[in-house]
Amino acid sequence: MAKQALGMIETVGLTSLVEAADAAIKAADVTMTGWxxxxxxxxxxxxxxxxxxxxxxIEAAAEAASQVGxxxxxxxxxxxxxxxxxxxxxIS
Length: 92
Hints:
Blueprint: E1 5-12, H1 14-27, E2 31-39, E3 42-49, H2 51-68, E4 70-78
Antiparallel strand pairs: 1-3, 1-4, 2-3
Helix pairs in contact: 1-2
């Protein structure tokens, strides 16, 4: 995952995450690697790409998701450590 970034967006409800994913993929050259149910209605989507693209994609995702639901949090990790990929297949 060298020279890549990992972006995450956590929303309340799957509908908001679908809207977020659509916006992120359309706005920037990012790949959605997966999503996970957190619990209590929270879901998290994972995106990878170069740092600038992931930042732009996550910003677009947060804006779009907030129009239809609630965004709980966002995070962009530039050049994540390779061992972070052991947490799940959506990070690799």
